[in-house]
Amino acid sequence: MVQKREDLLKVKSRWQLEEVEVFFDYLDIIIGKVYSSVCDLDVKRFWLSRFDSYPLNDVMKGFHRMIESGKIYGRPTPDLLFLELSQNNLSLAREKWSEVQDAVRLIGPHRSVEFSSPDIAFAVRSIGWFRICSAYISDESALFALFTEKLAHHNPSLHDSVVLGLGNENRKALGITFQEPTKTPAAEQRYADGITGGSLLLDSAKKTP
Hints:
The protein has 209 residues and is mainly alpha-helical.
């Protein structure tokens, strides 16, 4: 059932109004037509309240994976989608943590690092680059759990992929020219694919007298 504009305006959500409209239309198709279940405004608002903390694109992809895997029996339920999103997020977090481990091994704490995505850099800065580099192997599980938590709190409007190393921190204090960051292998691949990153943090720090 297509929602009236005035009904959509009354819906409270972390998503933009256009995203809510897309999600409601999608629920009409999946729940209403494919599974022949009731999908009125209350049902849609219930689903929205459970998932608007995730990016809309991730929720849509999670729905697709859930349907294609044949995990739905009868009709879709939020707990199945939660499980799908959690498993997918954990897999992505492991992949991103692997990039951090590569940076620790290949670059170390003294040089600045450019990661392949801003959320990795945000999580690393939140924990502390030196702390990660100096951690014992026995601390890795706890660090990964903290890294996963920080990833979830990344603001998509932040586009900085660089973490300053101790060398550039010291140069900043002394007013010496900054060294360019070293790219991780994953970041190098992004550049090779034509996707560039960069650092607002590094640019602003270079201007610091």
